[in-house]
Amino acid sequence: MPALKIATFNINGIRSRIGALRHWLEREAPDVACLQELKTADEGFPARELREAGYGAIWHGQKSWNGVAILARGTEPVEVRRGLPGDPDDSHSRYLEAAVHGILVGCLYLPNGNPQPGPKFDYKLAWFARLIEHAQTLFDSGHPVVLAGDYNVVPTDEDIYNPRSWRKDALLQPESREAYARLLAQGWTDALRAHYGEARIYTFWDYFRQHWQTNSGLRIDHLLLSADLAPRLRDAGVDTWVRGEDHPSDHAPAWVVLNRPAARRKRAA
Fold first, then answer.
1. Which UniProt keywords apply (predicted)?
2. Which of 50, 81, 210, 232 is the most buried (most CB within 10 A)?
3. Is 95 assigned a catalytic role?
C-alpha cells in the first residue's frame, strides 16, 4: 500500500540553511514537511528554491524570530488557518494549518517559556491552553489530522538524557508537562513514543557542552496523530544525520510514515 511521509523540522534560520534543507528534502523526500523557526519575514522566504526542489509551500514568517511553514512534495498545500484562535493581539508567527494529501496538517512552534517563572512562561502556558482548545475542535471534527512541530516540552524524564541540570528549565516544568498530557488525553497519539515504546529517542541537542557528540539530547519535537490516523502508523524516526552536518540546526527532523487509506471499490451497477 502506498505510504505518506510527514516530517517536522525546526530549521533554526531557513535563509542560512536553505542548502542543508534542500539536501535533506532530496535525500529523505518527505511528502509533507513542517518547518519552524524560519527567522525571516514573509518576503524573505525561499519559495523559488523550494519549488526547484519539487515542493509547494505556504509560510507565516516573522522578521528575526519564530515563523512556520508547510511544504508539500509535488503539490501545493491549501491553507486552512494562519495563527491560533483565541487571542487577536498575539503577533507571533507560530501556527499554520493546511490541507495536503488528504490530511489536515497543523504546524506549530510552541513558545519556549524561559526564563521561568515570568511573563514568557505565562505566555507559553496561555498559548498552550489555546492550542489545546483548538486541538479539541480538530479532533472532534473527524478529519484525519497531524499536529507536528516543536512543542518545547520534554514530556517525561525518559525524553531527556539527564533531567538533573534542566529541572528549572521551562521545558520540564510540571505545568508544561501537564499541558502536554492534557492534550494527549483528548485522544491524540504521540507517534514517536508509540513507535519506539520505552526506547530513548531525541530530536534536539543544544550547541553547548558537547551535547551532540555525547548524544545528550532531548525529545521536544512531536507528531500527534488523530484517532483515525494512529492505526495507519507504519514507521517513525529521527533523521539524526542532519544534526551532524556542517552548520546544523540544533534540531533534527522527526517523521512518521502513514499507510494511505485503501481506495474504495466502486459498486457494481
1. Hydrolase, Magnesium, Manganese, Metal-binding
2. 50
3. no
- Tell me how far apart the alpha carbons of residues 199 and 162 are, in angstroms, rounded to a whole number: 15
CATH number of 3-259: 3.60.10.10
Which is the catalytic residue, given 55, 95, 109, 180? 109
Cell of 136: 479539541
Residues 140, 182: contact at Cβ < 8 Å? no
37 is an annotated ligand-binding site residue: yes
The band of 263, judged by pLDDT with boundaries at 50, 70 and 90, is low
- The pLDDT tens digits of the residues spanning 22-66 come to 999 999 999 999 999 999 999 999 999 999 999 999 999 999 999
Burial class (CB in 10 A: 0-12, 13-18, 19+), 55: buried
Nearest-angstrom CA–CA distance, 129 and 26: 37
CA 38/CA 241 separation, integer angstroms:
21
| Three-class secondary structure assignment of 69-138 | EEEEECCCCEEEEECCCCCCCCCCCCEEEEEECCEEEEEEECCCCCCCCCHHHHHHHHHHHHHHHHHHHH
Residue-level length of the chain:
269
The C-alpha atoms of residue 55 and residue 48 are separated, in whole angstroms, by 9
Angle at 245 between CA 255 and CA 60, to 5 degrees: 55
Give this prediction's pTM.
0.96
Domain boundaries, given as residue ranges, for the chain: 3-259
Active site residue 151: no
Give percent of the chain above pLDDT 90.
Answer: 95
Provide the grid cell at 199: 526506547
Active site residue 190: no
